[in-house]
Amino acid sequence: MKTFEELESTVRSYSRGWPTVFEKGKGYKIWDTDGKEYIDFFAGAGALNYGHNDDGIQEKMIEYIQGNGILHSLDMGTTSRKTFLETFKETILAPRNLDYKVMFPGPTGTNSVESALKIARKVTGRDTVISFTNAFHGMTIGSLSVTANSFKRHGAGVPLHHSVSMPFDDYVEDQNTIAYLERFLEDRGSGVALPAAIILETVQGEGGINAASMEWLKKVDELCKRWDILLIVDDVQAGCGRTGTFFSFEPAEIDPDIVCLSKSIGGAGLPLALTLIKPEYDQWGPGEHNGTFRGNNLAFIGATEALKFWETDAFSKAIKEKGDVLQKGIEDLVKKYPELDAHHRGRGLMQGIAIGKHQSTDDICAEAFDRGLIVETSGPDDEVIKFLPPLIIDKDGLEQGLAILDESIKTVLGK
Amino acid sequence: MKTFEELESTVRSYSRGWPTVFEKGKGYKIWDTDGKEYIDFFAGAGALNYGHNDDGIQEKMIEYIQGNGILHSLDMGTTSRKTFLETFKETILAPRNLDYKVMFPGPTGTNSVESALKIARKVTGRDTVISFTNAFHGMTIGSLSVTANSFKRHGAGVPLHHSVSMPFDDYVEDQNTIAYLERFLEDRGSGVALPAAIILETVQGEGGINAASMEWLKKVDELCKRWDILLIVDDVQAGCGRTGTFFSFEPAEIDPDIVCLSKSIGGAGLPLALTLIKPEYDQWGPGEHNGTFRGNNLAFIGATEALKFWETDAFSKAIKEKGDVLQKGIEDLVKKYPELDAHHRGRGLMQGIAIGKHQSTDDICAEAFDRGLIVETSGPDDEVIKFLPPLIIDKDGLEQGLAILDESIKTVLGK
Amino acid sequence: MKTFEELESTVRSYSRGWPTVFEKGKGYKIWDTDGKEYIDFFAGAGALNYGHNDDGIQEKMIEYIQGNGILHSLDMGTTSRKTFLETFKETILAPRNLDYKVMFPGPTGTNSVESALKIARKVTGRDTVISFTNAFHGMTIGSLSVTANSFKRHGAGVPLHHSVSMPFDDYVEDQNTIAYLERFLEDRGSGVALPAAIILETVQGEGGINAASMEWLKKVDELCKRWDILLIVDDVQAGCGRTGTFFSFEPAEIDPDIVCLSKSIGGAGLPLALTLIKPEYDQWGPGEHNGTFRGNNLAFIGATEALKFWETDAFSKAIKEKGDVLQKGIEDLVKKYPELDAHHRGRGLMQGIAIGKHQSTDDICAEAFDRGLIVETSGPDDEVIKFLPPLIIDKDGLEQGLAILDESIKTVLGK
Amino acid sequence: MKTFEELESTVRSYSRGWPTVFEKGKGYKIWDTDGKEYIDFFAGAGALNYGHNDDGIQEKMIEYIQGNGILHSLDMGTTSRKTFLETFKETILAPRNLDYKVMFPGPTGTNSVESALKIARKVTGRDTVISFTNAFHGMTIGSLSVTANSFKRHGAGVPLHHSVSMPFDDYVEDQNTIAYLERFLEDRGSGVALPAAIILETVQGEGGINAASMEWLKKVDELCKRWDILLIVDDVQAGCGRTGTFFSFEPAEIDPDIVCLSKSIGGAGLPLALTLIKPEYDQWGPGEHNGTFRGNNLAFIGATEALKFWETDAFSKAIKEKGDVLQKGIEDLVKKYPELDAHHRGRGLMQGIAIGKHQSTDDICAEAFDRGLIVETSGPDDEVIKFLPPLIIDKDGLEQGLAILDESIKTVLGK
């Protein structure tokens, strides 16, 4: 670890909580240089939905490199870009009756969000964007302005503008957050300008695994339609099957104007991002938003191969089943350890256990790491242990992970 | 091309000027699906300094994938990250007596710039950043605020703040731009607050291949030291050997506080970015800036292998020699076609030919494309044809490219 | 009226609704050049609490001018400034156990608000200020940023920053706006930074005569104390006795850190403003906020004389009694004309009648004007008829005014 | 002075440098409570161009008050407002062939500037305004954003936006500031957006009595016309005859789109401000900018009477002659005291003497105060002694003042 401590910036974060050097990964397991095995309930913060080093993706990537395939192309036409576009349309968009134009905004989630905000402002001629409490949309200044966490916002070093934070579903006890939002929008004296867009995550990952109800999502969608506000769903973490459907908003039967995808869209964890835009709002000038790595062709190869998981319903069904196993496991822990003052959060394979204020989630995660489980915290006060196993995990893996967590909690409570 | 026209956003840009589908690349050449060969004077806008599919890099990447190496790791410790850090220190920093902490800010140039601006503001407690006319630093809101191009700025959809544009070297005929900058800084009534940082490119790539003199760079550095302003060199395009030395600022013998690297740092064109920070300014809290793809391990593999080019002086010398060939070729064209009202710009293998207002650089580049040369324009009015061949190009390749350009100009002028 | 139409800017407003040329005023009556008499239920939008041309004030002003008293002095020491300061301390501050330093920020309410925001930001080192829905604090950019009306905000021509709009008391049906505010303040992930200050009017005049309950004001005050947020009461319109006590916040038994006064503080309607600041927050550097007319000595003369009204409790009691008369009058109208879908608002001599959406307040006010009553509308949709008679009005005057309003409503409903 | 020290905010400024209590004023003289007489070379920072308590103005004001004239009217029609508008048109606008609509924006200079910026942004749909180094336009956030002084800007407590500071005439030694401005405007890659307006003072008062040349003003005007930028002249301090003509820009033969007037426009030092707008740009909605004291009728009375000074050329000629006397006096001092390293600045009766860095202007002004001369400093480092005598001063008064200054300098240098 000396190398990281001496040569790397103090900004490094995960290598502090998991102080080892990782070497290999396959499926839902990883190994460090000492050969110690870990179950991965973190999955690259949602970037490894298909697990580590999927055989099919590996094979295609090696074949592509060996064949001298174009690796870097900005937005020039390439065979791998073409194939990905066609496959994405056929496998994902067409079966869901979605008609989006695909933008490659640069290979990160924050870049997708920045592009979404820009086009929403251009199309509407308005500057304000409404985001929600405990939202996380990225760390560049545009995305950070719609991110709620005060530590991260403060890191900007400058005040963040052109955004208004509204309460997410269930944010204030016994208060109807939709009634607030509606009142602010309808009243010309509310002090909140008619926004260009409302941006949301259907399940807030970094914000503490807060899952909006389908009813709440529907109502936000209705408000957007009533006032010609664009609805942006940031599906960077909750998308690509994480909640059981490819897009996390499918069960709400809503119709976002713009969708941000990244993390697992590249299949193997290589950087890639997409911004999906309804054709009527795709009013970009050529090059009006760009970026050097918007054509990461090796990621197109991985992304195309990964879409095979979505050719039938089987994958989706399996995620839901495993989600039920996970939820039961969490609920059992909640009951077993009442002193944790805990409760369950989330849906699909994006779940968490929120712990009462007097307990340390960090201690629990540290015990879990010692026992071979990689799991991290989230929420404004790190009060939630967040479970994001690879979607390809089997029940055995889930149960092993939950068992380690059980022991870790027991140990921490025993101290 | 129908796929791109129908499925992709109108934001796509290069696939309009070079309307074909590329398939393979090796060294300084690429081929499209029809088997047509092109000489690449574009090199992924500077992301492919080592050419397409370098044998050594290919081999290491394949080996890594086959061995189930960790591909995605955020900022967890991995073997590939460790090796890269050590090699970068040994090959690049130590021999140049540079003592930077290395930050991985997310895998794009704009992310590196955003992180540089944040830390400069945090360290100084000031909000303003001075940037220069015709600067390009990226497309996310923080970086865009220090980018000068009005089309790109306007795309933000919101006013851009906390930045002041000052004249770059030689910007106003017969005016001493350093005298202006100095006066604005020294006068408490100038209307420009003492800035957190001054950010600059030593050679402005997108801005029209404007190369600052070494004397000008030295004076900016002195002004920064006099007023405790951090100097940020954005070496995303001009770095990694593009101008003949690894860092473009080496011949100026200056000492930037922060350096942004991306594009070619990954070796093979895979997304990667570094922010180099003097230890005394590395005051980040853990995770105060982050990003899902800040640990792109396949790019670490490529980056480490590419650093072999820098083990001796030979590569640097060769770039300078090829730069001389390129410069002579450009100057010959300037003389041969006086009706172009042209002049030479740039240094190393980052050069351009600026064309008078009555001629179309786009037409010339289109003719060149037809003849098998990939070359693009830059500058606020696209008035410059920009030459960024891979650094590994040989003289033969350079001369072929120049010959195609000669014919293209002749054809356009003949019309 | 031709003079105004031809020579004045289209921004003129009141001369459209009351299309005549006024010449004289005395007490609660004014006369136009045709000799027509009007009862004034407008009182200079609250700047003429002591009525037009009070005998005592007139006498002192004439005496001062005749004696070649200093009229203009910025913040130089003058006899009239000295006497005002001493009288204000003795008559207003000391009896209420208030210990404020007095700042003269320039002679307008908006200037007082701008100075309050500046000092709150300086003292706390924070930039955000929380204001409320339907707040009105002024038209210069700082004050406008905490003003809620969308028409007025839009007039800025630039986005307004550093402010967050929270729901005023009773803003959303059946919702607890204090719970909402508290949640945003306590949660580090709310997206709202800890503010420098909360600014409020206890009764929103322009916003539609919305009177906060004493309980709500107390709770806001408690939240401010809990998080070291400065509480600014903008008492420009509701202060100087308008609600029955000199400061409108007295019945809430709260303790604002900063108080803004203007409008009637000058006694005769001459421009004057004060910013009252708790001594521990009076951290201005000399001249850090200034203004040419911050020493309007004739206004000091009027202001000092007007403070005589406050030497005993009698004036305060009389206002409350007249307020009861006014309230009963309004409630009678509400009952008498159910088709208005009206309800009563406000307290003291700052009351209004809110009319349902299908009726025109403008028509009613126009009828009233024809019948000799000056009364204006307020609220985001001009849905409230606002009653601000001079505090020195007698019951006869109140009843005459109410009678005219009754006839005006009848006429409009009859059409 | 104890009253001011104990009761007033620490923001008070002039009462520190001139620590006495003033009581009376007449013409160019004032007296304190001890009966000590002072010659006034300050004139209310330019608000008392017609001297203290002009007989004619006094008489009209008393008559108006005695006649129960309307004192406060917002923008209702009144006889005094009507008469002022007609007299201003007839005496000032018509003879100069100027066709402005008159706006009353609230009774302070900063309010006039705020309104000018708003309408310029509305009319052009652009947000940036260009202002100049060492400009002073006011202390509310909109005006402060175009004010250059760093102490005053810092007092905002928030970053100031939507403005760009350009170098004033002669700002950088041996550099052509017009060439600089032109280059930034013409280049689409300059980083400075096409502005809504350029705002300037022809002679910068607070900034150090910097007088722009007529040629420079003409060129700025030409640049504005070339790019459809509105030219705003802030004539708050330099207008109303201060430089010898009613408007300070008359000798430059330029044609501003908007003119800001305040300070001496009220005649007697009572708060009043005007914004003059070319009819084609007068696109306000009713009430889009407002303010409680925009109808200060007693100031209309004073303003109307003061316009009598402008019925013939005599007043203008006399100012110029007295300006010559003042200039000669200053130049004599410059020669007599070479150790001051001084030079002359300004024109008309708006002149100054700039002192080298090693001398204290504060000490000189303090000596002058002791000897009965009121004179203040200006400039970013208070390096200029500023002479703003009332325009009605006689040569005797000028010479007495200069003599006191001579002695004061001698005393300070002798220490």
Short description:
The structure is a homotetramer of 415-residue chains. With 415 residues, the first copy, chain A, is of the alpha/beta class.
Write a structural description.
4 copies of one chain form a homotetramer. Chain A has 415 residues and is α/β, with parallel strands linked by helices. Chain A has 2 domains: 1-54 and 313-413, Aspartate Aminotransferase, domain 1, CATH 3.90.1150; 57-310, Type I PLP-dependent aspartate aminotransferase-like (Major domain) (Aspartate Aminotransferase, domain 2, 3-Layer(aba) Sandwich), CATH 3.40.640.10. Chain A is 37% helix and 16% strand. Chain A has helices at residues 2-7, 14-17, 43-46, 55-66, 79-93, 109-124, 141-144, 150-154, 177-186, 214-226, 297-306, 314-336, 361-370, 395-414; strands at residues 21-26, 29-32, 37-40, 101-103, 129-132, 163-166, 197-200, 203-204, 210-211, 230-234, 258-261, 274-277, 343-347, 350-354, 373-374, 376-378, 384-387. In chain A, a hairpin with a 2-residue loop joins strand 13 (343-347) and strand 14 (350-354). The first copy, chain A, is globular and about 55 Å long. Chain A starts with a helix and ends with a helix. At the A-B interface, helix 1, helix 2, strand 1, helix 3 and helix 4 of A face helix 1, helix 2, strand 1, helix 3 and helix 4 of B.
CATH secondary-structure class of the largest domain in chain A: Alpha Beta
Give the number of domains of chain A: 2
> CATH H level of the largest domain in chain A: which superfamily?
Type I PLP-dependent aspartate aminotransferase-like (Major domain)
Head-to-tail CA distance between termini of chain A: 28 Å
Number of helices of chain A: 14
CATH architecture of the largest domain in chain A: 3-Layer(aba) Sandwich
Q: How is the main sheet of chain A built? A: 7 strands, mixed
Find the CATH topology of the largest domain in chain A: Aspartate Aminotransferase, domain 2
The largest chain-to-chain contact, stated as pair and per-chain residue counts, equals:
A-B, 113 and 113 residues
The proportion of strand residues of chain A reads: 15-25%
Low-confidence stretches of chain A: none
Number of DSSP-assigned strands of chain A: 17
- Portion in helices of chain A: 25-40%
What is the arithmetic mean of pLDDT of chain A? 97
